[in-house]
Amino acid sequence: MDAIFLVDICGTFAFAVSGVLAAVERKFDLFGVIILAFVTSLGGGTLRDILIGSTPVSWMNSDVHIYLILLTIPLAYFFMNTLVKLKKTFLLFDTIGIGLFTVLGLDKAIEVGLSPVVAIMMGVVTAVFGGVIRDVLSNQVPLIFRKEIYAFACLSGAIVYSSLNYFGLFIEFNLMISITVVISIRLLAIKNKWSIPFKPLAKRN
Amino acid sequence: MDAIFLVDICGTFAFAVSGVLAAVERKFDLFGVIILAFVTSLGGGTLRDILIGSTPVSWMNSDVHIYLILLTIPLAYFFMNTLVKLKKTFLLFDTIGIGLFTVLGLDKAIEVGLSPVVAIMMGVVTAVFGGVIRDVLSNQVPLIFRKEIYAFACLSGAIVYSSLNYFGLFIEFNLMISITVVISIRLLAIKNKWSIPFKPLAKRN
Amino acid sequence: MDAIFLVDICGTFAFAVSGVLAAVERKFDLFGVIILAFVTSLGGGTLRDILIGSTPVSWMNSDVHIYLILLTIPLAYFFMNTLVKLKKTFLLFDTIGIGLFTVLGLDKAIEVGLSPVVAIMMGVVTAVFGGVIRDVLSNQVPLIFRKEIYAFACLSGAIVYSSLNYFGLFIEFNLMISITVVISIRLLAIKNKWSIPFKPLAKRN
Fold it and tell me: Which of A20, A28, A31, A89 to mutate to test the interface with C (most CBs of C within 10 A)?
């Protein structure tokens, strides 16, 4: 439980930072920055909770997430220069976020008694849809449709997590391994410019 | 019950094909194709279930829909050449999908005890919003806002279905008639380029 | 209760008008106009109800909202010339809508037992997301991200409402004050072209 809460807090922070960076890049005003920080960090978990019928949505049961995000915004603003200089910062925070949220979503779906296949989907949804909603609200084609092995990384981590879970591994250990899998695949994919194109037969002619 | 299940499976298949075709046209990578297939075929029913509070969303209670869609993707890929040659294929599958899903959504809403007017709306939502979400995620103005008598076809079918239902017709018979109404109107509209423009008075000057 | 219902009806009407105006401006066909009227007026409350788990979503429990919106559409169409001549009409109806819906959403969230901070967020969500969904469906960056102190007005009204509520003021009185606060701030912001830019430090260099 405590390990899960820690993962939740870190993931929320990482995605809030990535939301602020995205909003600034798109020249939104203050309120746009706030909404994008909230949507990016809470969107995926919110969609998961709505789909599995766990309402009021989990972050609404306490004010912790709200205050965390409200604190992250000026923090990200203050260290903006540093963040922007480290070119890959946005991708890094985004990657950490998806790693943490994949296992979080999966864990919650298993808890509710959904099948492993559905649980793996919920892990991916939790990790990925905060960013998808962020991109849709910014009127952009979601990153996930165009770049890197983004979701493939989540999927791999989710499969690893549910396999290890099946064998009854300690949750803390399982969390660490699965999160590491997601983050490693994503970072390797970015570094080596991996991609899975989908060239339909029709285009060959 | 069995007839409803059959309608569900066929509609899911038809929309999954239309999702794959849309994704390929937009040059998404493999994961984008998968997401668009899922979103197009499950999106409308998901929104309906969320609105009426039937959660976990119905397709999450078994793995049937997930496997069906995962099988449809390579199938649509393999027959891509054939599908693309038949120019109207995308529209055909899309039309079959909306025909089937209109009555499906309506039936479910009536079952939950909602008023006929609300039930008709839920039929249209089920049929139409998979495509709307598909278009929003692809960063396009939803087809439904710009083309043909798309939703008018759904609406007509929904009204026919709930009228026949009121008179206590056999469900299998009712399903067949209503689905035929939707598909016929849509295909006639495409063939004859029907449209309902909405020229506001203000523009005349 | 009655005062709340009145606020609901007026807000729904105001947002439906703003939805029709937006659809006409974007040259949508009849069905697009209908969807945009529905989405703009029901979208915010729908999202709030889904988030707090109050389903079937409130407007689905009677046909009042549906008939109201269906009546508003030809009305807005008929008076289109007048509406368009009064340049600021769209903004006015939109502003009245957000004023009314802010307090409505907040009131409902408090009723369900959510914390004041979450309730204020739900007030803003109710007021703002109908317009956000309208803009996303029209493939535009939501107004809220780019213009004026839109959401700041909602936020102020929400804070005033929950403060007055805390001191046990008559609800009718409280409603009037809070709605006035939202509308005044928004109108003053439009008139004086207030905005809260968010210039990140990084951009200065």
Answer: A31
